[in-house]
Write a structure and sequence with these properties.
The complex is a heterodimer of chains A (146) and B (469). Chain A has 146 residues and is an all-alpha fold. Chain A is 51% helix and 3% strand. Chain A has helices at 7-35, 47-58, 81-84, 87-100, 119-133; strands spanning 66-67, 70-71. Chain A has a two-stranded antiparallel sheet with strand order 1-2. In chain A, strand 1 (66-67) and strand 2 (70-71) form a beta hairpin. The model of chain A has no long low-confidence stretch (mean pLDDT 96). Chain B is mainly α. Chain B has a domain at 1-160: Up-down Bundle (Four Helix Bundle (Hemerythrin (Met), subunit A)), CATH 1.20.120. Chain B has helices spanning 9-35, 46-77, 84-107, 110-116, 134-157, 162-178, 188-223, 227-248, 261-272, 274-289, 298-321, 325-331, 335-364, 373-409, 419-425, 427-449, 458-468. In chain B, helix 7 (188-223) runs antiparallel to helix 8. Chain B is globular. Classes of the chains: A mainly alpha (146), B mainly alpha (469). Chains A and B meet through helix 1, helix 2, strand 1 and strand 2 of A and helix 2, helix 4, helix 7, helix 8 and helix 9 of B. Chain B: Belongs to the heme-copper respiratory oxidase family. Chain B: It is an enzyme of class 1 (oxidoreductase). Chain B: It catalyses: nitrous oxide + 2 Fe(III)-[cytochrome c] + H2O = 2 nitric oxide + 2 Fe(II)-[cytochrome c] + 2 H(+). Chain B: It is found in: Cell membrane. Chain B: Pathway: Nitrogen metabolism; nitrate reduction (denitrification); dinitrogen from nitrate: step 3/4.
């Protein structure tokens, strides 16, 4: 750095730069929030889906799985599990029997706890995963395996 | 130590290191579960161990940041801390709340914990890194407010240096951004979007201000370089951190619902995010080369230099590797993310906290020139064991990630291997990572044991050697 670059110039760069980018970020945030209704599948956000999200959180599913690529990477991605496991035709049936069969008890295999959810709760969780699968994610994940 | 009240940071540092050790133990449990899937099941399921691992990380870093602030703010402001007693009370409140939360994770099922802590009234739990019960989150806010009041008043009545102003700005931002953890809408896309306001704007925004100011403080102390020079660097580094990091948040908005323009904005700005870290490395080496004094605490200087280098590699290089949208499309949520996360957090934040501890702890224990040479040698063993093994952990996870992308992500649907089958194929990398984790554990044992090694003042020892020769 040349000596002509003074401390007050550095400070102005910090203050000006951060204020400018904070304002830009706020503007972009407002625009994103305005555009989300066309992308986030909110028309299908029923009470049942909201209940499913609450169950997802209360049981810390994110501690093993990822959802839209975020979370832990110990168990499969569930953002698209609705399509991977049967879609409209049979996802719910698959999901319920899968949940009730846990833990599988295969020695050495990663094990999922039994959460003892009621039939109604499993329906809500399945509805939440279906809703999540229909959020527009710029075509992520690259294939059905997530 | 110039001011008596600086001593309040001691319990903060000690507790931070205890939690750090706990974090590593749970890291080893997780590493084992990656290869022996049912290890400790059902007593400690993976999600519980992971929550303890990441929450201990966040909390020990917060303890470290607070300890750093209590130590350096009075000295920078040239006045005693506004209220040392409050600092100690808040320490116990935070330590108790943190301990209870971890015990809650371990002793009751998460759903029970959510129920008994009132998650139904204000649901905030069950989101990655924000798993703390709502009442713990409220407690964090109370502690943060008391803490900010205490150091804010100290600076107001004392000298306002660039270091303490930047540090306070960072800590204020940290508290402010944490408020977004209370916003948890039913709409998943909105939830995820604002979740990043805490997570990204912490680690790639305000925490960088905190890190840079602590680094600047330690460099002034160990090199004796003119404050004016260091302050100018500090301004430029944090300017670059915010200029790149704020819009850089966009690299998390690619695949969770927000509009497509984030693909461009996120890619461009996050590609610039290594710049502040690169400048930090230049800064640290530049200052040490221009030093006017050879501080006898060589371990602290080593930590400062190591921190700058590892932060650049982990946050800068490994972040850049998978930040461009076309690459991230394949690597998002793979082991590449885990590789980057490990080295970035260790390099930037774990090491900056250890740097200030390495400088401040001996001073608080009546050794202004640093620990004895014997103790410093053991501490430096800790440095190298931990740092080198972290490099290997990162490399092994990167290897696992590349293979994972190759087998699971790149082939078309129908030809790609499933997640679980892919994981089996990565077992060798996970075993190697576990071995590297054990070496890391040996490193932390060496590091912690250096606290118990006595011996002569390093300056006295050096003089004695001079007289002999």
């Amino acid at each position: 750095m040349a000596e002509r670059f003074t401390k007050s110039m550095a400070r102005n760069m910090y203050l000006g730069g951060s204020v400018f980018f904070i304002l830009l970020f706020l503007g972009l945030t407002m625009d994103t929030v305005r555009q989300l209704p066309q992308r986030d599948n909110r028309e299908n956000l029923t009470e049942e889906v909201a209940h499913g999200k609450k169950l997802w959180e209360d049981n810390n599913c994110i501690g093993c799985h990822s959802l839209l690529g975020e979370g832990a990477y110990f168990a499969p991605e569930l953002g698209n599990v609705f399509y991977r496991r049967g879609g409209e035709d049979s996802f719910k049936i698959f999901f319920k029997s899968w949940m009730n069969a846990q833990p599988l008890g295969v020695e050495g295999r990663r094990a999922m706890p039994q959460f003892n959810l009621s039939d109604e709760e499993l329906d809500a969780l399945a509805a939440f995963l279906e809703y999540s699968a229909k959020i527009k994610t710029n075509d992520w994940p690259p294939n059905i395996e997530g | 130590m110039k001011y008596e009240s600086q001593a309040v940071s001691k319990p903060y540092f000690i507790f931070a290191l205890i939690l750090f050790a706990g974090q590593i133990v749970f890291g080893l449990i997780l590493g084992t579960q990656y290869v022996i899937g049912d290890f400790l099941f059902p007593e400690i399921p993976f999600n519980v161990a992971r929550m303890v691992h990441t929450n201990l990380l966040i909390v020990w870093l917060l303890f470290g940041f607070m300890g750093a602030a209590y130590y350096l703010i009075p000295e920078e402001a040239e006045t005693e801390l506004h209220n040392p007693k409050l600092a100690i009370i808040l320490f116990w409140v935070f330590a108790a709340a943190g301990t209870l939360t971890v015990l809650g994770y371990l002793l009751v099922p998460y759903a029970t914990l959510a129920e008994i802590t009132g998650n139904d009234l204000l649901p905030t739990m069950g989101r990655e890194f924000l798993e703390q019960p709502t009442i713990t989150k409220a407690g964090i806010v109370v502690v943060a407010l008391g803490f900010l009041y205490n150091i804010g008043m100290t600076v107001l009545k004392g000298r306002k240096t660039v270091i303490n102003i930047v540090l306070i700005t960072g800590l204020l931002g940290l508290a402010l951004m944490f408020l977004f953890s209370f916003y948890n809408p039913e709409n998943l896309a909105l939830d995820k979007f604002f979740w990043w306001f805490v997570v990204h704007l912490w680690v790639e925004g305000v925490w960088e201000l905190i890190m840079a100011s602590i680094l600047a403080y330690v460099l002034i102390k160990v090199t004796g370089v003119d404050r004016e020079v260091i302050e100018k660097w500090l301004y430029v580094i944090i300017a670059m951190a915010l200029i790149t990091g704020i819009i850089g948040t966009g690299h998390h908005f690619f695949w969770i619902g927000p509009p497509e323009y984030w693909l461009w904005l996120g890619s461009i700005f996050s590609a610039l995010e290594p710049i502040p870290f690169f400048m930090m490395t230049l800064f640290a080496f530049n200052m040490v080369n221009r030093r006017r004094r050879e501080h006898p605490n060589r371990a602290a200087t080593l930590w400062a230099l190591g921190c700058a280098v590892m932060a650049f590699l982990g946050a800068g290089v490994w972040g850049f590797l998978h930040t461009l949208a076309p690459v991230n499309y394949f690597t998002h949520g793979s082991q590449i993310t885990a590789a980057h996360g490990h080295m970035a957090f260790y390099g930037a934040y774990a090491m900056i906290v250890i740097t200030i501890i390495s400088y401040a702890m001996p001073a608080m224990r009546g050794r202004p020139n640093g620990n004895s040479n014997k103790a410093q040698v053991v501490e430096m063993w800790g440095f190298w064991l931990m740092t080198v093994s972290m490099v290997f952990i990162t490399l092994f996870l990167t290897g696992a990630g590349i293979l994972q992308v190759w087998l699971q992500r790149i082939p078309e649907s129908g030809e790609a291997l499933s997640f679980m089958v892919t994981q089996d194929k990565l077992a060798l990398f996970y075993w190697l990572r576990l071995v590297a984790g054990l070496v890391f554990f040996a490193g932390i044992v060496a590091y912690l044991s250096s606290f118990f090694i006595k011996g002569e003042d390093p300056l006295v020892e050096a003089q004695a050697r001079l007289q002999e020769s």
